[in-house]
Amino acid sequence: MSTYIFNLPDIGEGIAEAEIVKWHVKIGDVVAEDDQLADVMTDKATVEMEAPVSGKIIAVAGEEGDIIAIGSMLVEIEVAGDVDREELEASGKESASAGKAEAEVEFSKQDIEIKNKLDASRVKVAAQKESKETPALKVDKTDAKPSDYGGKKPLATPAVRKRAADLGVDLSEVKAQGDHIRHSDLDAFLNYGSGQGYRPSGASRKRKDETIKVIGMRRKIAQNMAESKRNIPHFSYVDEMDMTELEDLRADLNANRGERPKLTMLPLLIVAICKSLPQFPMLNAIYDDEAGIVTRHGAVHLGMATQTDQGLMVPVLRNAQDMNIWQLATEIGRLAAAARDGTAKASELSGSTLTLTSLGPLGGIATTPVINRPEVAIIGPNKIVERPMIIDGEIQARKLMNLSISCDHRVVDGYDAASYVQALKHFLETPVLLFAD
To answer: Which residues are catalytic?
Structure first.
């Protein structure tokens, strides 16, 4: 027997350390060559680490969320026979020679068989324990009191039954004003009839306290947001847009789109953003505060804040100013899907010059979004709602949307931000301009 120490390799130019975001093994596990060991995250990407040899894990570098240096130990593996590290490295992949690999595989097979038997035994014991501790459920077919409903089950809709169950209310205690219990009857019982007011359903609904370690993408988001708020003096501005004509145009375009993707409001909004930016170059910029240099970009590399299971990610629409609405719709869908399923490349998650953040139907009345540092501005459209407006002395139903912008006050003046939003508003409220040269 011998041991093999697998050091964290250089996984990117200029990367000095990485965070362990997920372990796929633990001490005592038997692994085969190329099995997944861990996922590690750098500032640029998440990388899967695979076992260079077969054997048993006898040591790991730390816990999920720990930061380790490039070149330091990730795992230590006990292997059968000796391992020639120079030969592994010279092969371009840290794997053993053919003769040694056979011995390792044989060793691995034996340990895997033992491990499988132990796992099967544990599962059997757990199942037996569960069957003893958890008695079979008995269905009470008479959840009413005979004295209240003559031994019959009180009549109520499924929605009322669910609400009563959530509140811990026995429907047999609720007096119905008609032939079945309604929400109003339940309200009356809760407010007056029970003598207790609102009653929670008991300890079974009390959640336990949880302690969750902030690691991986969530830690990156926390660090970036803290850096942005700590270093950038934010200010926000909100204005109202009449989106009625643009929404009508979008409906017409979708009705005649053929094989092209269905349009949301985002592609049209992005066209308006790109067309209004040339007059306000200070908004499509990044600020290196250490060097004291502002770089105003000619191309619009638009970041799109995207919610994923791992947290907020910002894939980038490169050269958005050169795309038409159908190209934008396709690229938005592709990048959002890549961000959510974890296949987005590092180059697709960096290099933005301006960010757009939208909560879609959850957009609320107004937002004060946090700037994606080192950018100097972020735009946040809110929910479109139908409200009455007075136009030419008449009340009309119009589709209105508030649009928010947050800016870096070191670079952008309030007057310039407000002027830009007015220019953007002109494009949105006059949609023919979106297609004019």
So the answer is: 409, 413
- Helix then strand then coil, % of the chain, to nearest 5: 40, 25, 40
Rounded Cα gap, residues 323 and 274, in angstroms: 10
In this structure, the number of other CB atoms found within 10 A of the CB of residue 344 comes to 22
Number of helices and strands (H, E) in the chain?
10, 17
Q: What are φ and ψ of residue 154, in 5° steps?
A: -60, 140
- SS3 category, 406: strand
Cβ-Cβ contacts under 8 Å for 369 (sequence gap 6 or more): 236, 305, 355, 357, 378, 379, 380, 404, 406
Q: Can you state the angle between helices 265-276 and 414-429, rounded to 10 degrees? A: 130
How does DSSP assign 228-292, residue by residue?
A: HHHH--EEEEEEEEE-HHHHHHHHHHHHT-TTSPPP-HHHHHHHHHHHHGGG-TTTSEEEETTTT
The model's pTM is 0.64
Rounded to 10 deg, the angle between the 414-429 and 244-255 helix axes is 50
Q: Which domains does the chain have, with CATH numbers?
A: 2-114 (2.40.50.100), 146-205 (no CATH), 216-435 (3.30.559.10)
Neighbours of 78 (CB within 10 A): 17
Q: How many CB atoms lie within 10 A of CB 19?
A: 21
pLDDT per residue of the chain (437 residues) written in tens, 0 to 9: 789 999 999 877 668 888 998 999 999 999 999 999 999 988 767 888 999 999 999 999 999 989 999 999 999 999 987 666 555 555 444 433 333 333 333 334 444 443 454 345 444 545 554 444 444 333 333 343 433 555 677 888 888 888 888 888 888 888 888 888 988 888 888 776 655 555 544 444 567 888 888 888 888 888 899 999 999 999 999 999 999 999 999 999 999 999 999 999 999 999 999 999 999 999 999 999 999 999 999 999 999 999 888 788 999 999 999 999 999 999 999 999 999 888 888 889 999 999 999 887 777 889 999 999 999 999 999 999 999 999 999 999 999 999 999 999 999 999 999 999 999 999 999 999 999 87
CA distance 402 to 364: 9
Closest residue by Cα to residue 414 from 280, 242, 276, 225: 280
Return the structure tokens found at 72. 């330091």
Q: What angle do CA 314, 319, 322 make, to 5 degrees?
A: 135
